[in-house]
Amino acid sequence: MPPNTPSHRRSPAVILAVVAFGVFIAADDLTVVSTMLRQIIFDLEIPLPDELNRAAWIVNAYLIAYVVVMPFVGRLSDLVGRRAVYVGALVLFMIGSIWLPLADSLNAFIAGRVLTALGGGAMVPVAMAVVGDVYAPERRARSLGTLGAVDTAGWVWGPLYGAFLIRYLSWQWQFYLNVPLSLLALALAWWALADLPKPLYRARIDWAGTAVLTICLIALNVALLGSGDVQAAGSFAALNDPQPINTTFFYALAAVTFGLFIWIEWRLGRLNVLTPSPPHPLTPPLIDLSLFRRPNFSPAVLINFLVGFILIIAMVNVPLLVNVLEFEPQQAAVVSGFLLSGMTLAMAVMAYVGGRGTERWGYRPVTAVGLLLCAVGFGLMGWTWSVATAYEQMAWQLVIVGMGFGLVIAPVGTAVINAAPATERGVAASLVIVLRLMGMSVGLAGLTAWGLHRFHLLRRTIELPNLPLSDPVYQQALTDGLMRVTVAVLAETFLVSALVAFGALVVAWWLKGGHGRDGAKSL
User: 3-state DSSP helix/strand/coil percent for the chain, to nearest 5?
Assistant: First the structure.
């Protein structure tokens, strides 16, 4: 189903600016709640700690919906056109933003967060596919790097913006302001995306594959959230949950539905090969499995998964470590924000640099340099961070890690987009984001479980004085010992992240082309 390719009345730069504006709004909404969560819980009158596990779903439900919607809307944009899907995503996001300030219960608030997540999650892969449509292959890296920089900037802005609103207004204003911003983005998108390539004919939607993959992603995310056994900034299931998630059941459900999804997609792929060409109606698979045989596609999505695996370790374990060192919660929040802002700002800047570099040198060199910086940064963090480490040292080492992450964004995303045919750019773009987010979920669950195991082992090595438990000297020795052990365990997770980065570096060897006119050859 090759699309029409009309000449664009709007310049590619204008189209990029328009879709990037929507992506920024969605990225801001993804992280803004982190600094508002305490006030939201108070205003919704959620009793703590009894219902802490339910309150965590303010974040959990958003993350799950954000991931689940991407493959479907990516494919939908391939079948019905980018503008309709992108504008529809903005409308859904706006409806959720109107709903949230009016919510008077936790369940109603979670429903509103799901609506905004479905809209926000839909915007990102469609925006990437739009860039693939309007830019020539040799110019896509720079443009996707710009889009990645805007997305990352939204991550950075979200918590800072949320803190400002809580300080001077209220959390409701985040969603009040989303409405005019969404209306502006909607009007701009309707105007700018009017002459994007359109499918020559409509194909049927793979509803069976969509339903099975949705169940699979929901089950896997719920299982991983339960396996993580951590309550990080309200993000995951609480340790004291009186009714813990039956992770075995959800893992089994995810495995069964994944196998069924692969069978459905393989069968549809075979039928489409044997079916006469249009105008006979076809049902193309949601994800064409032949994509994974195309040059660069499989190594690129695997690298993206591994990058997500280590990115979440920095995002979660750095604040945890700071909270161990700082007894004053407000000071800990300020320090954590300062450290992570340095990392994410470096990501935003280097995402653009990575795009420029990819156009000049290709996928492999830029990706390799980025992963090497990640490995070096995490290695330094793992070897040198302790209870005595100065925050200034932590900051510059996190900047190294952020530079590495940023460099990887453009070449990996461009490799996936360029590898996919024009009729499948939407679903290919969705896999870039989905695999990164799934890597984050797997990384957090795996390293958290391993970290808890190491903590229980190392705490036995704490040497305590032979004094009564209530003695102040004994209590101080116990506090100091637990602090050292906790910091040591968190530092070990950074070393594991360095090893994972080196593994991704090996995978990067299979990336080829991507620079100059070679970008066109990857199609």
Answer: 80, 0, 20
> Using H for helix, E for strand and C for coil, what is the string for 405-435?
HHHHHHHHHHHHHHHCCHHHHHHHHHHHHHH
**Tokens of residue 171, six digits:** 């959390």
Mean pLDDT of successive 10-residue segments in the chain (523 residues)?
50 89 87 74 68 68 84 84 90 92 85 89 88 83 85 78 78 88 92 78 77 87 65 36 64 91 85 56 78 89 91 79 68 73 86 88 92 94 85 90 91 89 83 84 77 75 69 68 78 90 93 59 40
pLDDT, position 390: 86
Q: How far apart are CA 438 and CA 430, in angstroms?
A: 12
pLDDT for the residue numbered 105: 82
Contacts of 259 (CB under 8 A, 6+ apart): none
Nearest-5° Cα angle at 163, 170 to 56: 85
Fill in the DSSP letter of residue 244: -
C-alpha closest to that of 1 among 83, 85, 71, 77: 77
**Do residues 283 and 204 lie in contact, with contact meaning Cβ atoms separated by under 8 Å?**
yes
For residues 369 and 504, is the Cβ–Cβ distance under 8 A?
A: no
Query: What angle, 0 to 180 degrees and rounded to 10, lies between the N-to-C axes of helices 391-419 and 106-134?
Result: 60
Query: Residue 269 corresponds to which amino acid?
Result: G
Structure-token pair, residue 487: 């910091």
22/19 Cα distance (integer angstroms) = 5
Please give the pLDDT value at position 227: 59
Which residues make Cβ contacts (< 8 Å) with residue 277, sequence separation at least 6? none
What's the pLDDT at 328? 63
281, HSE (Cβ side, Cα atoms, 13 Å): 5
Alpha carbon distance 456, 321 (integer Å)? 17
Q: Is 398 in contact with 340 (CB distance < 8 Å)?
A: yes
pTM listed for this prediction: 0.81
The answer to whether 318 and 339 have CB atoms below 8 angstroms apart is yes
Half-sphere exposure of 85 (CA within 13 A, CB side): 29
Q: How far is CA 158 from CA 102, 110, 121, 234, 401, in A?
A: 21, 19, 16, 16, 20
Q: How far apart are CA 444 and CA 309, in angstroms?
A: 7
